Sequence to fold (183 residues):
Amino acid sequence: MIIALIVLAIVVVLIIFVVGIYNKMVRLRNRIENAWAQIDVQLKRRWDLIPNLVETVKGYASHERETLEAVISARNAATTAEGPAAQAQSENMLTGALRQIFALSEAYPELKANENFRDLQEELTATEGRIAYARQLYNDTVLKYNNSIQTFPGVVMAGPMGFSEREYFEADDESRGNVSVEF
Fold:
């Protein structure tokens, strides 16, 4: 009788332990989805601002067609990218293209003085800050999640319960450097 109670207690403790680990992994997976949704919201906000910025620049620097087309092309690629790796790569291309647009304002003082351009530039700068924060939150959450499924005891249960490693949202080396613009 006592042995049966001890075995039952051990089984109950193990079940509670497994349920606790499972729930932790589910919460972390859901946080990743939420963090990704926050990145997506900020990226869409950025994408919506870009056509206005391009139209403003066209009025002052119409012969910079190649730069403007590069921005539109990068924006279109970014809006269709799927998954963290593809999204990060396309967003890095878009960031580089936007840097060239902002560099144009140095060559065109009347563009730099345009209130609409300044407002759009400030709005994009603020959005970039929000995107950076959302990326950091996403990557921190992915780190916690990946650690939970790669360390004991989570590693024993992650595979059979359908939990797999997630990708980080990373910037490439090219997007971290300065942009060079030639006129």
Notes: The radius of gyration is 24 Å. Residues 92 and 176 are 9 Å apart (CA to CA).
